[in-house]
Amino acid sequence: MLKYSLKRLLHSLVTLFIILTLVFLLMRLLPVEGYYGERADKLTPAQKEAILRKMGLLDPWYVQLRNFYLQLFRGDLGVSVTYRANVPIKEILAAKIPYSFAFGVAALVLSLVVGLAMGIHMAQTKGLFWDKLWTTYVVFVNAVPGAVYLLFIQLYGTSVTRLPMLFDRYNVLSWILPLISMSLGGIAGNAMWLRRFMVDELNKDYIRLARAKGMSSRAIMVKHVLRNAFVPLAQYLPASVLFTISGSIYVESLYSIPGMGGLLVTAISRQDNPLVQALVLIYSSLGIFGLFLGDILMAILDPRIRLERQGGAR
Amino acid sequence: MMTSKEKEIIQAIEEKELFTFAQYDAEAAERTGYSDYSYWRSTIRVFLRNKTAIFLLILMTSLVTFTFIQPYLPGQKDPITIHLDPNTGLQLRNHPPDKEFWFGTNSIGQDLWARLWSGTRTSLLIAIIVGIWEIVFGTFVGAIWGYVRPLEAFITEAYNVISNVPTTIILTLVAYILRPSFQTMIIAMCSTGWLGMARFVRNQIIIIRDREYNLASRCLGTPTGRLITKNLLPYLVSVMVMRVALSIPGTIGWEVFLTYIGLGLPLNTPSLGNLLNEGRRVMGAPALRYQLFFPAVVLSVITVSFYVLGNAFADASDPRNHF
Fold first, then answer.
1. Which end of chain A has less Cβ packing within 10 Å, N or C?
2. Does B191 touch chain A (CB under 8 A)?
Protein backbone atom coordinates (compact mmCIF):
# COMPACT_ATOMS: atom_id res chain seq x y z
CA MET A 1 0.00 0.00 0.00
CA LEU A 2 2.83 2.38 0.93
CA LYS A 3 4.67 1.53 -2.26
CA TYR A 4 1.56 2.16 -4.31
CA SER A 5 0.94 5.51 -2.59
CA LEU A 6 4.51 6.70 -3.08
CA LYS A 7 4.50 5.71 -6.73
CA ARG A 8 1.20 7.45 -7.24
CA LEU A 9 2.43 10.55 -5.39
CA LEU A 10 5.55 10.75 -7.51
CA HIS A 11 3.44 10.50 -10.62
CA SER A 12 1.19 13.32 -9.43
CA LEU A 13 4.19 15.52 -8.71
CA VAL A 14 5.56 14.97 -12.21
CA THR A 15 2.18 15.85 -13.70
CA LEU A 16 1.97 18.92 -11.50
CA PHE A 17 5.43 20.03 -12.60
CA ILE A 18 4.48 19.67 -16.27
CA ILE A 19 1.25 21.60 -15.78
CA LEU A 20 2.87 24.42 -13.82
CA THR A 21 5.57 24.83 -16.45
CA LEU A 22 3.03 24.81 -19.26
CA VAL A 23 0.80 27.31 -17.51
CA PHE A 24 3.78 29.54 -16.81
CA LEU A 25 4.82 29.50 -20.46
CA LEU A 26 1.22 30.10 -21.57
CA MET A 27 1.09 33.10 -19.29
CA ARG A 28 3.94 34.67 -21.26
CA LEU A 29 1.50 34.75 -24.18
CA LEU A 30 -0.95 36.88 -22.26
CA PRO A 31 -1.37 40.53 -23.21
CA VAL A 32 1.33 42.48 -21.34
CA GLU A 33 -1.19 45.21 -20.47
CA GLY A 34 -1.97 42.98 -17.53
CA TYR A 35 1.23 44.07 -15.81
CA TYR A 36 1.03 47.85 -16.00
CA GLY A 37 -1.80 48.41 -13.57
CA GLU A 38 -4.39 51.16 -13.63
CA ARG A 39 -2.39 53.90 -15.30
CA ALA A 40 -1.51 51.92 -18.42
CA ASP A 41 -2.64 54.72 -20.80
CA LYS A 42 -0.51 57.43 -19.22
CA LEU A 43 2.76 55.52 -19.18
CA THR A 44 5.51 56.29 -21.66
CA PRO A 45 7.08 53.33 -23.50
CA ALA A 46 10.23 53.76 -21.35
CA GLN A 47 8.21 53.55 -18.14
CA LYS A 48 6.42 50.48 -19.41
CA GLU A 49 9.71 48.83 -20.18
CA ALA A 50 10.97 49.72 -16.72
CA ILE A 51 7.97 48.03 -15.14
CA LEU A 52 8.45 44.89 -17.20
CA ARG A 53 12.17 44.89 -16.40
CA LYS A 54 11.50 45.31 -12.69
CA MET A 55 9.14 42.34 -12.76
CA GLY A 56 11.78 40.32 -14.58
CA LEU A 57 9.62 39.84 -17.64
CA LEU A 58 12.33 40.84 -20.08
CA ASP A 59 14.71 38.11 -18.93
CA PRO A 60 15.12 35.01 -21.09
CA TRP A 61 12.28 32.56 -20.48
CA TYR A 62 14.42 29.97 -18.65
CA VAL A 63 15.58 32.58 -16.12
CA GLN A 64 11.97 33.59 -15.62
CA LEU A 65 11.00 29.97 -15.14
CA ARG A 66 13.71 29.43 -12.54
CA ASN A 67 12.70 32.55 -10.63
CA PHE A 68 9.11 31.46 -10.81
CA TYR A 69 9.84 28.12 -9.16
CA LEU A 70 12.12 29.73 -6.54
CA GLN A 71 9.32 32.15 -5.66
CA LEU A 72 6.81 29.32 -5.54
CA PHE A 73 8.94 27.23 -3.17
CA ARG A 74 9.08 30.17 -0.79
CA GLY A 75 5.27 30.09 -0.82
CA ASP A 76 5.09 33.49 -2.47
CA LEU A 77 2.31 33.94 -5.03
CA GLY A 78 3.24 37.48 -5.99
CA VAL A 79 1.24 40.67 -5.74
CA SER A 80 -1.92 41.71 -7.53
CA VAL A 81 -1.57 44.42 -10.18
CA THR A 82 -5.00 45.80 -10.98
CA TYR A 83 -7.50 43.95 -8.80
CA ARG A 84 -6.10 45.44 -5.58
CA ALA A 85 -2.84 47.07 -6.55
CA ASN A 86 0.24 45.77 -4.74
CA VAL A 87 -1.68 43.65 -2.24
CA PRO A 88 -0.08 40.20 -1.82
CA ILE A 89 -2.24 37.59 -3.54
CA LYS A 90 -2.09 35.38 -0.47
CA GLU A 91 -3.90 38.07 1.54
CA ILE A 92 -6.61 38.40 -1.08
CA LEU A 93 -7.18 34.66 -1.07
CA ALA A 94 -7.16 34.40 2.72
CA ALA A 95 -10.09 36.81 2.90
CA LYS A 96 -12.13 34.93 0.31
CA ILE A 97 -11.53 31.26 0.93
CA PRO A 98 -13.57 30.98 4.16
CA TYR A 99 -16.80 32.01 2.39
CA SER A 100 -16.34 29.61 -0.50
CA PHE A 101 -15.25 26.85 1.84
CA ALA A 102 -18.24 27.24 4.15
CA PHE A 103 -20.69 27.23 1.27
CA GLY A 104 -18.84 24.48 -0.52
CA VAL A 105 -18.81 22.10 2.43
CA ALA A 106 -22.46 22.72 3.23
CA ALA A 107 -23.43 22.19 -0.40
CA LEU A 108 -21.31 19.06 -0.60
CA VAL A 109 -22.94 17.54 2.49
CA LEU A 110 -26.39 18.45 1.20
CA SER A 111 -25.76 17.01 -2.25
CA LEU A 112 -24.32 13.81 -0.79
CA VAL A 113 -27.14 13.23 1.69
CA VAL A 114 -29.97 14.10 -0.68
CA GLY A 115 -28.28 12.71 -3.78
CA LEU A 116 -27.45 9.33 -2.27
CA ALA A 117 -30.90 8.99 -0.72
CA MET A 118 -32.42 9.81 -4.09
CA GLY A 119 -30.16 7.33 -5.87
CA ILE A 120 -31.08 4.53 -3.47
CA HIS A 121 -34.75 5.36 -3.80
CA MET A 122 -34.44 5.31 -7.59
CA ALA A 123 -32.70 1.94 -7.61
CA GLN A 124 -35.34 0.47 -5.33
CA THR A 125 -38.26 1.75 -7.39
CA LYS A 126 -36.59 1.10 -10.75
CA GLY A 127 -39.05 1.58 -13.60
CA LEU A 128 -41.82 2.82 -11.33
CA PHE A 129 -43.27 6.25 -10.70
CA TRP A 130 -40.67 7.64 -8.28
CA ASP A 131 -37.78 6.48 -10.40
CA LYS A 132 -39.29 8.26 -13.40
CA LEU A 133 -39.95 11.43 -11.41
CA TRP A 134 -36.38 11.66 -10.08
CA THR A 135 -35.02 10.75 -13.51
CA THR A 136 -36.87 13.69 -15.00
CA TYR A 137 -35.18 15.93 -12.46
CA VAL A 138 -31.76 14.44 -13.17
CA VAL A 139 -32.20 14.81 -16.93
CA PHE A 140 -33.31 18.39 -16.62
CA VAL A 141 -30.44 19.44 -14.36
CA ASN A 142 -27.87 17.60 -16.45
CA ALA A 143 -29.09 18.85 -19.80
CA VAL A 144 -30.03 22.47 -19.16
CA PRO A 145 -27.06 24.72 -18.38
CA GLY A 146 -26.95 25.84 -14.75
CA ALA A 147 -26.69 29.42 -15.94
CA VAL A 148 -30.32 29.14 -17.05
CA TYR A 149 -32.19 27.35 -14.31
CA LEU A 150 -30.23 28.97 -11.47
CA LEU A 151 -31.35 32.33 -12.78
CA PHE A 152 -34.98 31.28 -12.48
CA ILE A 153 -34.37 29.93 -8.99
CA GLN A 154 -33.08 33.32 -7.95
CA LEU A 155 -35.87 35.14 -9.76
CA TYR A 156 -38.80 33.12 -8.39
CA GLY A 157 -37.11 31.97 -5.20
CA THR A 158 -36.88 35.53 -4.03
CA SER A 159 -40.25 36.76 -5.33
CA VAL A 160 -42.35 33.79 -4.17
CA THR A 161 -40.76 32.97 -0.81
CA ARG A 162 -39.48 36.48 -0.03
CA LEU A 163 -36.06 35.15 0.80
CA PRO A 164 -33.35 37.77 0.51
CA MET A 165 -31.91 38.19 -2.97
CA LEU A 166 -28.36 39.05 -1.99
CA PHE A 167 -25.99 37.40 0.44
CA ASP A 168 -25.66 38.89 3.90
CA ARG A 169 -23.20 37.36 6.30
CA TYR A 170 -25.40 37.97 9.33
CA ASN A 171 -28.68 36.77 7.86
CA VAL A 172 -28.94 32.99 7.80
CA LEU A 173 -31.99 33.17 5.53
CA SER A 174 -29.85 34.61 2.78
CA TRP A 175 -27.79 31.42 2.78
CA ILE A 176 -30.68 29.21 1.74
CA LEU A 177 -31.04 29.98 -1.97
CA PRO A 178 -27.33 29.94 -2.81
CA LEU A 179 -26.94 26.69 -0.92
CA ILE A 180 -29.79 25.03 -2.81
CA SER A 181 -28.48 26.40 -6.11
CA MET A 182 -25.02 24.99 -5.45
CA SER A 183 -26.34 21.56 -4.49
CA LEU A 184 -28.80 20.87 -7.32
CA GLY A 185 -26.15 19.73 -9.79
CA GLY A 186 -24.35 17.57 -7.23
CA ILE A 187 -27.59 15.96 -6.11
CA ALA A 188 -28.45 15.03 -9.69
CA GLY A 189 -24.97 13.68 -10.37
CA ASN A 190 -24.78 11.61 -7.19
CA ALA A 191 -28.28 10.23 -7.65
CA MET A 192 -27.70 9.30 -11.28
CA TRP A 193 -24.41 7.50 -10.73
CA LEU A 194 -25.48 5.73 -7.57
CA ARG A 195 -28.61 4.49 -9.33
CA ARG A 196 -26.57 3.25 -12.29
CA PHE A 197 -23.98 1.48 -10.15
CA MET A 198 -26.64 -0.05 -7.90
CA VAL A 199 -28.64 -1.34 -10.86
CA ASP A 200 -25.46 -2.84 -12.33
CA GLU A 201 -24.66 -4.43 -9.01
CA LEU A 202 -28.19 -5.82 -8.57
CA ASN A 203 -27.85 -7.77 -11.81
CA LYS A 204 -24.77 -9.65 -10.66
CA ASP A 205 -24.81 -13.32 -9.78
CA TYR A 206 -23.66 -12.99 -6.19
CA ILE A 207 -26.79 -10.98 -5.42
CA ARG A 208 -28.89 -13.86 -6.75
CA LEU A 209 -26.89 -16.20 -4.53
CA ALA A 210 -27.48 -13.95 -1.53
CA ARG A 211 -31.20 -14.02 -2.24
CA ALA A 212 -31.14 -17.77 -2.72
CA LYS A 213 -29.51 -18.33 0.64
CA GLY A 214 -32.31 -16.30 2.22
CA MET A 215 -30.76 -12.91 2.92
CA SER A 216 -33.34 -10.18 3.37
CA SER A 217 -33.69 -7.54 0.64
CA ARG A 218 -32.75 -4.86 3.09
CA ALA A 219 -29.55 -6.59 4.13
CA ILE A 220 -28.64 -7.21 0.50
CA MET A 221 -29.16 -3.56 -0.31
CA VAL A 222 -27.11 -2.27 2.59
CA LYS A 223 -24.36 -4.87 2.87
CA HIS A 224 -23.71 -5.71 -0.76
CA VAL A 225 -25.28 -3.37 -3.28
CA LEU A 226 -24.81 -0.01 -1.61
CA ARG A 227 -21.33 -0.78 -0.40
CA ASN A 228 -20.07 -1.90 -3.77
CA ALA A 229 -21.92 0.78 -5.68
CA PHE A 230 -20.45 3.49 -3.49
CA VAL A 231 -16.82 2.63 -4.27
CA PRO A 232 -16.73 4.23 -7.74
CA LEU A 233 -18.40 7.35 -6.32
CA ALA A 234 -15.90 7.64 -3.50
CA GLN A 235 -13.13 8.25 -6.01
CA TYR A 236 -14.33 11.76 -6.70
CA LEU A 237 -15.03 12.63 -3.08
CA PRO A 238 -11.60 14.07 -2.15
CA ALA A 239 -11.55 16.21 -5.29
CA SER A 240 -15.00 17.57 -4.45
CA VAL A 241 -13.89 18.39 -0.93
CA LEU A 242 -10.82 20.23 -2.19
CA PHE A 243 -12.77 22.10 -4.82
CA THR A 244 -15.12 23.52 -2.23
CA ILE A 245 -12.36 26.11 -1.78
CA SER A 246 -12.64 27.35 -5.31
CA GLY A 247 -16.32 28.10 -4.93
CA SER A 248 -19.01 28.27 -7.55
CA ILE A 249 -18.33 31.03 -10.07
CA TYR A 250 -21.91 31.42 -11.14
CA VAL A 251 -23.81 31.13 -7.86
CA GLU A 252 -21.39 33.32 -5.94
CA SER A 253 -21.70 36.12 -8.43
CA LEU A 254 -25.50 35.79 -8.67
CA TYR A 255 -25.88 36.29 -4.94
CA SER A 256 -22.84 38.57 -4.48
CA ILE A 257 -21.04 36.21 -2.14
CA PRO A 258 -17.50 37.52 -1.56
CA GLY A 259 -15.90 34.15 -2.22
CA MET A 260 -13.28 32.73 -4.53
CA GLY A 261 -15.72 31.87 -7.30
CA GLY A 262 -15.82 35.15 -9.13
CA LEU A 263 -12.19 36.01 -8.48
CA LEU A 264 -10.83 34.39 -11.63
CA VAL A 265 -13.46 36.11 -13.74
CA THR A 266 -12.72 39.47 -12.13
CA ALA A 267 -8.99 38.94 -12.50
CA ILE A 268 -9.48 38.20 -16.17
CA SER A 269 -11.75 41.12 -16.89
CA ARG A 270 -9.33 43.44 -15.03
CA GLN A 271 -6.35 41.83 -16.82
CA ASP A 272 -4.53 41.10 -13.59
CA ASN A 273 -1.98 38.61 -14.91
CA PRO A 274 -0.21 37.61 -11.66
CA LEU A 275 -3.57 36.94 -10.04
CA VAL A 276 -4.77 34.88 -13.02
CA GLN A 277 -1.55 32.88 -12.86
CA ALA A 278 -1.82 32.26 -9.12
CA LEU A 279 -5.43 31.12 -9.44
CA VAL A 280 -4.72 28.77 -12.32
CA LEU A 281 -1.88 27.27 -10.27
CA ILE A 282 -4.12 26.76 -7.27
CA TYR A 283 -6.94 25.18 -9.25
CA SER A 284 -4.62 22.84 -11.15
CA SER A 285 -2.90 21.72 -7.95
CA LEU A 286 -6.27 21.13 -6.30
CA GLY A 287 -7.31 19.02 -9.27
CA ILE A 288 -4.19 16.87 -9.21
CA PHE A 289 -4.10 16.49 -5.47
CA GLY A 290 -7.80 15.61 -5.41
CA LEU A 291 -7.33 12.84 -7.95
CA PHE A 292 -4.33 11.56 -6.04
CA LEU A 293 -6.31 11.32 -2.79
CA GLY A 294 -9.18 9.76 -4.72
CA ASP A 295 -6.95 7.00 -6.03
CA ILE A 296 -5.53 6.33 -2.57
CA LEU A 297 -9.03 6.17 -1.15
CA MET A 298 -10.06 3.75 -3.87
CA ALA A 299 -7.06 1.57 -3.13
CA ILE A 300 -8.08 1.44 0.53
CA LEU A 301 -11.71 0.65 -0.27
CA ASP A 302 -11.04 -1.85 -3.02
CA PRO A 303 -7.85 -3.90 -2.60
CA ARG A 304 -8.06 -5.20 -6.16
CA ILE A 305 -7.01 -1.81 -7.49
CA ARG A 306 -3.56 -1.63 -5.97
CA LEU A 307 -2.78 -5.13 -7.14
CA GLU A 308 -3.45 -4.25 -10.75
CA ARG A 309 -0.68 -3.29 -13.09
CA GLN A 310 0.22 0.38 -12.96
CA GLY A 311 -0.41 2.82 -15.75
CA GLY A 312 -3.34 3.77 -17.87
CA ALA A 313 -5.64 6.71 -17.64
CA ARG A 314 -8.41 7.07 -15.18
CA MET B 1 -22.65 -48.62 -16.47
CA MET B 2 -26.31 -49.28 -16.60
CA THR B 3 -27.75 -51.37 -13.91
CA SER B 4 -29.68 -54.44 -14.92
CA LYS B 5 -32.85 -52.85 -13.65
CA GLU B 6 -32.51 -49.89 -15.99
CA LYS B 7 -31.86 -52.21 -18.90
CA GLU B 8 -35.04 -54.02 -18.10
CA ILE B 9 -37.07 -50.84 -18.10
CA ILE B 10 -35.65 -49.69 -21.41
CA GLN B 11 -36.30 -53.01 -23.02
CA ALA B 12 -39.85 -52.91 -21.76
CA ILE B 13 -40.50 -49.69 -23.67
CA GLU B 14 -41.36 -50.23 -27.24
CA GLU B 15 -39.05 -49.06 -29.96
CA LYS B 16 -41.64 -46.60 -31.27
CA GLU B 17 -41.79 -44.72 -27.99
CA LEU B 18 -38.07 -44.43 -27.64
CA PHE B 19 -37.41 -43.02 -31.05
CA THR B 20 -39.65 -41.33 -33.57
CA PHE B 21 -38.80 -39.77 -36.90
CA ALA B 22 -39.41 -36.06 -37.08
CA GLN B 23 -41.08 -34.47 -40.05
CA TYR B 24 -38.67 -32.44 -42.10
CA ASP B 25 -39.50 -28.79 -41.38
CA ALA B 26 -37.79 -26.38 -43.74
CA GLU B 27 -38.48 -23.40 -41.51
CA ALA B 28 -37.06 -25.00 -38.41
CA ALA B 29 -33.95 -26.03 -40.29
CA GLU B 30 -33.44 -22.45 -41.36
CA ARG B 31 -33.88 -21.19 -37.84
CA THR B 32 -30.92 -23.03 -36.39
CA GLY B 33 -28.40 -22.12 -39.04
CA TYR B 34 -29.47 -18.59 -39.85
CA SER B 35 -30.19 -15.50 -37.81
CA ASP B 36 -31.96 -12.54 -39.33
CA TYR B 37 -30.52 -10.33 -36.62
CA SER B 38 -29.44 -6.99 -38.01
CA TYR B 39 -27.68 -4.60 -35.66
CA TRP B 40 -28.99 -1.35 -37.07
CA ARG B 41 -32.52 -2.67 -37.65
CA SER B 42 -32.68 -3.82 -34.04
CA THR B 43 -31.26 -0.54 -32.83
CA ILE B 44 -33.91 1.41 -34.70
CA ARG B 45 -36.63 -0.97 -33.53
CA VAL B 46 -35.67 -0.54 -29.87
CA PHE B 47 -35.28 3.21 -30.32
CA LEU B 48 -38.76 3.53 -31.86
CA ARG B 49 -40.24 1.76 -28.88
CA ASN B 50 -39.31 4.77 -26.73
CA LYS B 51 -42.29 7.14 -27.02
CA THR B 52 -40.60 10.11 -25.29
CA ALA B 53 -37.64 9.83 -27.62
CA ILE B 54 -39.86 9.86 -30.71
CA PHE B 55 -41.75 12.88 -29.46
CA LEU B 56 -38.52 14.75 -28.73
CA LEU B 57 -37.01 13.65 -32.04
CA ILE B 58 -39.95 15.18 -33.94
CA LEU B 59 -39.92 18.30 -31.77
CA MET B 60 -36.19 18.80 -32.12
CA THR B 61 -36.06 18.09 -35.84
CA SER B 62 -38.80 20.62 -36.53
CA LEU B 63 -37.13 23.17 -34.25
CA VAL B 64 -33.71 22.76 -35.86
CA THR B 65 -35.18 22.78 -39.37
CA PHE B 66 -37.13 25.90 -38.57
CA THR B 67 -34.04 27.55 -37.11
CA PHE B 68 -32.16 27.08 -40.35
CA ILE B 69 -34.94 28.04 -42.79
CA GLN B 70 -36.30 30.94 -40.72
CA PRO B 71 -34.33 33.74 -42.48
CA TYR B 72 -35.69 32.60 -45.86
CA LEU B 73 -39.33 32.77 -44.78
CA PRO B 74 -41.33 35.83 -45.88
CA GLY B 75 -41.75 38.77 -43.50
CA GLN B 76 -38.74 38.08 -41.29
CA LYS B 77 -36.80 40.94 -39.75
CA ASP B 78 -33.06 41.35 -39.56
CA PRO B 79 -31.59 40.31 -36.20
CA ILE B 80 -29.28 43.31 -35.81
CA THR B 81 -31.34 46.12 -37.33
CA ILE B 82 -32.33 48.62 -34.66
CA HIS B 83 -35.99 49.49 -35.10
CA LEU B 84 -37.19 53.03 -34.54
CA ASP B 85 -40.47 54.23 -33.12
CA PRO B 86 -42.38 55.83 -36.08
CA ASN B 87 -43.93 58.48 -33.78
CA THR B 88 -40.87 59.70 -31.92
CA GLY B 89 -38.03 58.56 -34.17
CA LEU B 90 -36.26 57.10 -31.14
CA GLN B 91 -35.13 53.50 -30.66
CA LEU B 92 -38.06 51.17 -30.05
CA ARG B 93 -36.77 49.97 -26.69
CA ASN B 94 -38.24 47.01 -24.79
CA HIS B 95 -41.36 46.92 -26.94
CA PRO B 96 -43.61 44.15 -25.57
CA PRO B 97 -44.56 41.25 -27.88
CA ASP B 98 -47.32 42.14 -30.36
CA LYS B 99 -48.36 41.46 -33.98
CA GLU B 100 -45.43 43.36 -35.46
CA PHE B 101 -42.71 42.14 -33.09
CA TRP B 102 -43.76 38.60 -32.17
CA PHE B 103 -41.35 38.27 -29.26
CA GLY B 104 -40.96 42.01 -28.62
CA THR B 105 -37.79 44.03 -28.92
CA ASN B 106 -34.74 44.18 -26.70
CA SER B 107 -33.26 47.10 -24.81
CA ILE B 108 -31.93 48.81 -27.95
CA GLY B 109 -34.87 48.05 -30.24
CA GLN B 110 -33.79 44.89 -32.07
CA ASP B 111 -36.40 42.29 -32.97
CA LEU B 112 -36.19 39.49 -30.43
CA TRP B 113 -37.89 36.88 -32.67
CA ALA B 114 -35.24 37.30 -35.36
CA ARG B 115 -32.45 37.46 -32.79
CA LEU B 116 -33.66 34.32 -31.06
CA TRP B 117 -33.47 32.18 -34.22
CA SER B 118 -30.26 33.77 -35.37
CA GLY B 119 -28.78 33.09 -31.92
CA THR B 120 -29.98 29.50 -31.93
CA ARG B 121 -28.33 29.07 -35.33
CA THR B 122 -25.02 30.41 -34.00
CA SER B 123 -25.08 28.28 -30.87
CA LEU B 124 -26.08 25.14 -32.77
CA LEU B 125 -23.38 25.78 -35.34
CA ILE B 126 -20.72 26.04 -32.64
CA ALA B 127 -22.08 22.91 -30.97
CA ILE B 128 -22.09 20.94 -34.22
CA ILE B 129 -18.57 22.00 -35.22
CA VAL B 130 -17.25 21.09 -31.77
CA GLY B 131 -19.19 17.81 -31.94
CA ILE B 132 -17.65 16.89 -35.29
CA TRP B 133 -14.21 17.78 -33.98
CA GLU B 134 -14.86 15.60 -30.99
CA ILE B 135 -15.64 12.64 -33.26
CA VAL B 136 -12.78 13.15 -35.69
CA PHE B 137 -9.98 14.15 -33.37
CA GLY B 138 -11.17 12.27 -30.29
CA THR B 139 -11.53 9.04 -32.22
CA PHE B 140 -8.20 9.55 -33.95
CA VAL B 141 -6.31 10.11 -30.70
CA GLY B 142 -8.24 7.37 -28.93
CA ALA B 143 -7.55 4.84 -31.66
CA ILE B 144 -3.82 5.55 -31.71
CA TRP B 145 -3.73 5.66 -27.92
CA GLY B 146 -5.34 2.28 -27.61
CA TYR B 147 -3.67 0.58 -30.53
CA VAL B 148 -0.12 1.87 -30.90
CA ARG B 149 1.60 0.63 -27.77
CA PRO B 150 4.83 2.67 -27.98
CA LEU B 151 2.78 5.88 -27.86
CA GLU B 152 0.59 4.77 -25.00
CA ALA B 153 2.65 6.19 -22.13
CA PHE B 154 3.13 9.51 -23.88
CA ILE B 155 -0.53 10.05 -24.74
CA THR B 156 -1.58 8.91 -21.28
CA GLU B 157 0.65 11.55 -19.72
CA ALA B 158 -0.61 14.23 -22.11
CA TYR B 159 -4.17 13.24 -21.29
CA ASN B 160 -3.51 13.40 -17.56
CA VAL B 161 -1.97 16.85 -17.86
CA ILE B 162 -4.92 18.31 -19.75
CA SER B 163 -7.68 16.51 -17.88
CA ASN B 164 -6.22 17.44 -14.49
CA VAL B 165 -6.84 21.11 -15.04
CA PRO B 166 -10.53 22.00 -14.60
CA THR B 167 -12.31 22.60 -17.92
CA THR B 168 -13.48 25.98 -16.70
CA ILE B 169 -9.89 27.11 -16.32
CA ILE B 170 -8.78 25.86 -19.74
CA LEU B 171 -11.73 27.45 -21.51
CA THR B 172 -11.29 30.72 -19.68
CA LEU B 173 -7.56 30.82 -20.36
CA VAL B 174 -7.87 30.09 -24.07
CA ALA B 175 -10.64 32.61 -24.46
CA TYR B 176 -8.59 35.15 -22.50
CA ILE B 177 -5.37 34.67 -24.45
CA LEU B 178 -7.08 34.78 -27.85
CA ARG B 179 -9.58 37.66 -27.54
CA PRO B 180 -13.29 36.73 -27.78
CA SER B 181 -14.70 35.80 -31.21
CA PHE B 182 -16.55 33.00 -32.98
CA GLN B 183 -13.28 31.22 -33.80
CA THR B 184 -11.93 31.65 -30.28
CA MET B 185 -15.06 30.10 -28.87
CA ILE B 186 -14.66 27.09 -31.14
CA ILE B 187 -10.92 26.72 -30.47
CA ALA B 188 -11.48 26.96 -26.73
CA MET B 189 -14.12 24.24 -26.71
CA CYS B 190 -12.27 22.02 -29.17
CA SER B 191 -9.20 22.14 -26.94
CA THR B 192 -11.04 20.23 -24.22
CA GLY B 193 -13.91 18.61 -26.13
CA TRP B 194 -11.98 15.64 -27.47
CA LEU B 195 -10.79 14.35 -24.08
CA GLY B 196 -13.79 12.29 -23.11
CA MET B 197 -14.15 10.76 -26.55
CA ALA B 198 -10.46 9.85 -26.81
CA ARG B 199 -10.52 8.12 -23.46
CA PHE B 200 -13.67 6.20 -24.29
CA VAL B 201 -12.43 5.05 -27.70
CA ARG B 202 -9.12 4.03 -26.17
CA ASN B 203 -10.77 1.91 -23.50
CA GLN B 204 -13.00 0.20 -26.07
CA ILE B 205 -10.10 -0.46 -28.42
CA ILE B 206 -8.03 -2.00 -25.65
CA ILE B 207 -10.94 -4.33 -24.93
CA ILE B 208 -11.37 -5.51 -28.53
CA ARG B 209 -7.89 -5.23 -30.01
CA ASP B 210 -6.70 -8.59 -28.65
CA ARG B 211 -9.77 -10.61 -29.58
CA GLU B 212 -9.07 -13.66 -31.73
CA TYR B 213 -10.32 -12.23 -35.00
CA ASN B 214 -7.93 -9.30 -34.66
CA LEU B 215 -5.08 -11.59 -33.78
CA ALA B 216 -5.85 -13.63 -36.89
CA SER B 217 -6.06 -10.51 -38.98
CA ARG B 218 -2.71 -9.30 -37.69
CA CYS B 219 -1.12 -12.66 -38.39
CA LEU B 220 -2.34 -12.46 -41.96
CA GLY B 221 -0.49 -9.18 -42.33
CA THR B 222 -3.28 -6.59 -42.32
CA PRO B 223 -1.75 -3.11 -41.98
CA THR B 224 -2.45 -1.26 -38.74
CA GLY B 225 -4.45 1.51 -40.39
CA ARG B 226 -6.78 -0.95 -42.05
CA LEU B 227 -7.09 -2.96 -38.86
CA ILE B 228 -8.21 0.13 -36.96
CA THR B 229 -10.63 1.40 -39.58
CA LYS B 230 -12.15 -1.93 -40.67
CA ASN B 231 -11.99 -4.16 -37.61
CA LEU B 232 -12.21 -1.82 -34.66
CA LEU B 233 -13.96 1.44 -35.44
CA PRO B 234 -17.26 -0.01 -36.77
CA TYR B 235 -17.86 -1.23 -33.22
CA LEU B 236 -17.75 2.34 -32.02
CA VAL B 237 -20.11 4.09 -34.42
CA SER B 238 -23.07 3.94 -32.05
CA VAL B 239 -20.97 5.32 -29.22
CA MET B 240 -19.84 8.22 -31.37
CA VAL B 241 -23.39 9.14 -32.32
CA MET B 242 -24.36 9.10 -28.67
CA ARG B 243 -21.43 11.21 -27.53
CA VAL B 244 -22.09 13.88 -30.13
CA ALA B 245 -25.72 14.04 -29.11
CA LEU B 246 -24.61 14.51 -25.51
CA SER B 247 -21.86 16.97 -26.34
CA ILE B 248 -24.26 19.42 -27.96
CA PRO B 249 -26.04 20.45 -24.73
CA GLY B 250 -22.62 20.59 -23.07
CA THR B 251 -21.20 22.96 -25.68
CA ILE B 252 -24.26 25.19 -25.51
CA GLY B 253 -23.87 25.30 -21.73
CA TRP B 254 -20.21 26.33 -21.99
CA GLU B 255 -21.13 29.01 -24.49
CA VAL B 256 -23.65 30.44 -22.03
CA PHE B 257 -21.06 30.26 -19.26
CA LEU B 258 -18.28 31.95 -21.24
CA THR B 259 -20.68 34.69 -22.27
CA TYR B 260 -21.69 35.22 -18.67
CA ILE B 261 -18.11 35.72 -17.51
CA GLY B 262 -17.52 38.21 -20.31
CA LEU B 263 -15.59 36.04 -22.75
CA GLY B 264 -18.45 35.29 -25.11
CA LEU B 265 -19.20 36.29 -28.66
CA PRO B 266 -19.26 39.98 -29.59
CA LEU B 267 -22.65 41.61 -28.99
CA ASN B 268 -23.44 42.04 -32.69
CA THR B 269 -23.42 38.24 -33.10
CA PRO B 270 -26.58 36.98 -31.43
CA SER B 271 -26.16 33.64 -29.66
CA LEU B 272 -28.17 31.91 -26.98
CA GLY B 273 -25.57 33.00 -24.42
CA ASN B 274 -25.76 36.62 -25.50
CA LEU B 275 -29.57 36.60 -25.51
CA LEU B 276 -29.74 35.10 -22.02
CA ASN B 277 -27.28 37.65 -20.80
CA GLU B 278 -29.36 40.48 -22.24
CA GLY B 279 -32.45 38.96 -20.67
CA ARG B 280 -30.72 38.61 -17.32
CA ARG B 281 -29.86 42.29 -17.23
CA VAL B 282 -33.49 43.36 -17.48
CA MET B 283 -35.08 40.55 -15.45
CA GLY B 284 -35.53 42.81 -12.44
CA ALA B 285 -38.57 44.35 -14.14
CA PRO B 286 -41.40 41.79 -14.37
CA ALA B 287 -42.75 43.37 -17.59
CA LEU B 288 -39.44 42.73 -19.37
CA ARG B 289 -39.00 39.12 -18.30
CA TYR B 290 -40.15 37.92 -21.74
CA GLN B 291 -36.61 38.78 -22.91
CA LEU B 292 -35.22 36.15 -20.56
CA PHE B 293 -38.09 33.72 -20.90
CA PHE B 294 -38.06 33.13 -24.68
CA PRO B 295 -34.35 32.28 -25.03
CA ALA B 296 -34.48 30.14 -21.88
CA VAL B 297 -37.37 28.05 -23.26
CA VAL B 298 -35.76 27.48 -26.67
CA LEU B 299 -32.43 26.62 -25.06
CA SER B 300 -34.03 24.20 -22.61
CA VAL B 301 -36.00 22.42 -25.35
CA ILE B 302 -32.86 21.98 -27.45
CA THR B 303 -30.56 20.83 -24.66
CA VAL B 304 -33.09 18.47 -23.06
CA SER B 305 -33.99 16.97 -26.46
CA PHE B 306 -30.40 16.26 -27.41
CA TYR B 307 -29.64 14.87 -23.96
CA VAL B 308 -32.63 12.53 -23.88
CA LEU B 309 -32.15 11.45 -27.48
CA GLY B 310 -28.49 10.71 -26.87
CA ASN B 311 -29.31 8.53 -23.91
CA ALA B 312 -32.21 6.82 -25.69
CA PHE B 313 -29.91 6.05 -28.60
CA ALA B 314 -27.27 4.71 -26.24
CA ASP B 315 -29.82 2.32 -24.74
CA ALA B 316 -31.08 1.30 -28.17
CA SER B 317 -27.63 0.68 -29.59
CA ASP B 318 -26.67 -1.65 -26.74
CA PRO B 319 -27.11 -5.19 -28.13
CA ARG B 320 -28.13 -6.42 -24.68
CA ASN B 321 -31.38 -4.49 -25.08
CA HIS B 322 -32.17 -6.00 -28.46
CA PHE B 323 -33.93 -9.15 -27.25
1. N
2. no
